[in-house]
Amino acid sequence: METIKDYWAQLSAALAAAVWVVKAAIKRRKHRAEWERTVQKALLATLHDRLLFLCLQYLEAGEITADEMDNLTLLYDQYVALGGNGTIKKLMERVGIYVKIIDERSKNNELEG
């Protein structure tokens, strides 16, 4: 009879430990998911801010180099992939319509002269 009591006591302790480990893992996973959502929102906000600044800058200047346009498009593509909204889309469309793509050398000559 004592052996059966010991068996159940050990089994109960093992099950309690297993439940504790599972609960800890679930809590850690939930915390990690919340952290990842927060980082994603921060990246989206940072991309939004940078794209807004650059689009307005290029619209004011009226010109952009091909490399700058490639960079702007790369930022925009990542912004969209993270779930960005239509505000930046409208600005990107305006940049595509109203901003003239210039040669890098032309821009360098303007800066030097």
Q: Can you characterise this structure?
A:
The protein is about 85% helix and about 5% strand. It is mainly alpha-helical and about 110 residues long. The chain is rod-shaped. Helix 1 (about 1-60) packs antiparallel against helix 2 (about 65-80) and helix 1 packs parallel to helix 3. It has four helices and two strands; from the N terminus they run αβααβα. It starts with a helix and ends with a helix. It has helices at about 1-60, 65-80, 85-100, 105-110; strands at about 65, 100.
Topology of this structure?
Elements: H1 2-61, E1 63-65, H2 66-81, H3 86-98, E2 100-102, H4 104-112
Parallel strand pairs: 1-2
Helix and strand string, N-terminal first? Answer: HEHHEH
Beta-strand percentage range? 5-15%
Helix/strand/pairing class, anyone?
A: mainly alpha
- Averaged pLDDT: 90
State Rg.
28 Å
Give the spatial strand order of the biggest sheet: 1-2
Instruction: Count the E strands.
Output: 2
Q: Please summarize the sheet with the most strands.
A: 2 strands, parallel
Supply the number of helical segments: 4
Ends apart, CA distance between termini: 99 Å
Key attributes of the depicted protein:
two-stranded parallel ribbon; 113 residues; 87% helix; 2 strands; mainly alpha
